[in-house]
Amino acid sequence: MGELRALCAIPSVSARHEAIDPCAELVSRMLERRGFATQVTPTADGGHPIVFGRAAGANRSRKLLFYNHYDVQPPEPLDLWHSPPFDLTERDGSVFARGSKDDKGEFVCRLAALDAVRAVTGTYPCDITWLAEGEEEVGSPHLPAWIDQHESELKVDAAIWEEGGIEVDETPIVRLGARGLLYVELSVKVLARDAHSGQANLLPNAAWRLAWALAWLKAPNEKIMIPGFYDAVRPPTPREEELLREAPKGAAEVMEEFGLKELLGGVTDVNRAYFTPTCNIAGIGAGYQGEGSKTVIPAAAMAKLDFRLVPDQDPHDIHAKLRRHLDERGFGDVQIEVLGAERPGLTDADAPVVKLVAEIGEEIYGKKPRITPLTGGTTPMFLFTERGVPVVAPGVGWGAMNRAHSPNEFMRLVDFERAARHIARLAVRFAEQ
Question: Global pTM?
């Protein structure tokens, strides 16, 4: 917990480029103390550094990679935290801080697991590669190019990703994939400056202009209206269909968490819904938004949108279709800035490492794991799955309850201990395969 406390004390908020270098250096030192040869490597265009470490193990023919990220989400709103967000605080069997689970807690848990293995055996069971990036929370924009440049150093047999764990009912989850992402900012400017609203029947209004453009993106029935948007969507394979049938539907838990009587479109199967792409307005702004009234015509307006993509959609293709759609509807003046683009990634459910992770999960937790093909979120595992490397994600998560990205993020200590045992056994038995 001392190492986790030191990590969480560094406010490495990637969206603000805050405290990135000190956090990367600390991650590097933590690996070096454990015998890893590490590099804090720069990325292009002033991107955040990537920490890359390698350690030799007893079985040099087996190579396992761990992926983590040291950046975190902004802590706001601060007034909703029950303790300072960057001061790891223990209460009621859990530790609270930004990054306590996502993803600094996960990283330290894996270090603890390998510490235990080395304490017993004197060495690592196989060659271990560690990749820790500082831009996961902003879409990993520099990771693809970095991996292309270091591909020869990343020849591994399997990768252990972040974001795994157990469901609220204590059933372990084996996650095999993640949706892709296109994150854009739409903006429009119609006046040199804000104007008096008494001229509202004379001057254009940027807020209305943007609202009319947004209205062409999604219908009230939730269908996305960009021509060709769904063309590349592939349905679940027969094996994925089998996994979906075995998984709980999950709708009741989501409705309870958010105080709803039903989900959008009457969805009853949450895991199946993750095979459907989305168009979401993540933020929108124009004009006066302070306290009280101010009668103005906004000169400029913006909206941030994210599209969650499914196999076999490509974010660059969706961006091109979005641009064409707005142009054809008469909104060529609406600018599009791409802030993030990642392809979906998905591992074969029958890969040997998947079966091994599930087998050990049943031993640790006393329940047969649920294997879920896709998660609702996005992580750059496609960079390995597209290279033929199977990727699985056991971890310290507790369903959707850890409040990652929200105030009072936490990790239960019991989950830390069990996940460490899971990783320790996995490393040993992976080396024996």
Answer: 0.88
